[in-house]
């Protein structure tokens, strides 16, 4: 049994003014053939800088255990950012189809997608990529893995034979999902017939209420685990969608993969009811910049034994924002005296111009060049204390502006790990306040030193309200409208006669 494996992954923020090109994939992760096989092997680094093991290494390990020969095709991963160009999508498709052509006889393929890829130049890029792969391989099984922030649509469901989503948020089960897909694919090659059913819910929830470790989602995900133990149930998935996607059918969805069509329908329906029942759980209120500063000031003991992290919730680079919003850093710079603060901002021009002015005192305006930011660019005065040109974020300089130390980067800054600041000589232990631009994943890496997390909303493209302004929903969607019954929207979205 020869099983191919491939990945195309990016989470797209439809409000970002930036276009994602093939270079954005190549800069992070783009592998084919032997290089991909080495990365996905047990001793490899699957996605350097992001993850040692993800779906593909999980898939390879489990498939080989089943006696399969695994065949690397193509793997491309870009960081969350703006809509993807048509050119990049065509090149990714061409690369994938060429790899399939060169792979020789295949009995099945595992494809890892994100599910929230978007483009202004092409509708539903992942449905298209799946259709193109199917056209190149008309007669063999394909199993597809998704991030649970993916969006299922009738077109994507028609293109996907067996869809499976992550079960954790923050995501940490990529290898497990890859392994499950290997089992399903191997069974499929050996003659098992999957029956798949799904439901689409006209609801979205803010990020704060979708963590799998906390209620209400803890109960929902446990229910999924229990359902999968029932005889005949092979996989149950809940998709909670990426909020800043402009598809008019944006919302949650459920999928069941079972041994019989009746069971699949019943399970997809049951988990849909369960998910719908938690829709009233809205995320906690976020801080304003000033209330967060006041709270950090009061947290003396916590600051003395570690740091207070402030999540710049209106400029979450981890959700695709460019990272150049200045509202929170302005408040910390102008009104956060006495709090030793580490922060970052994207500004390609400043990061480049100050590179050869190490040690000099400078006055510059930073940020707010790509997206609207309340107050516009921030004028700061400080000394250039660090600079390098080949950081993971491109050109990078660090300014010492008194109580604020500001890292200015050419590309979107992503301080998920303390090393983002530590690597330029700043101590996250000694700081009072550390600004991050990521909703949840940073909490894991900052576990030892983070004494208090404050979520700060200013005004930016990763605000929950931004969804309502941008998406032209076809149906009334909770919580923007009061929706009593999810079934009418589901029937229309799935094109089911009622
Ligand atoms: Zn996700």
Strand content: 15-25%
The end-to-end span amounts to 43 Å
State mean pLDDT (0 to 100 scale). 95
Please indicate the count of domains: 2
- Helical content stands at 25-40%
The quaternary state of the protein chains shown equals single chain
- Low-pLDDT parts are none
Question: Structural class of the secondary elements?
Answer: alpha/beta
Q: How many helices?
A: 17
Compute the number of strand runs: 17
Strand order of the largest sheet: 12-13-14-15-11-16-10-17
Rg calculated over all Cα atoms: 23 Å
Which outline best applies? globular
Major sheet characteristics: 8 strands, mixed
Task: Give the distinct bound molecules.
Answer: zinc ion
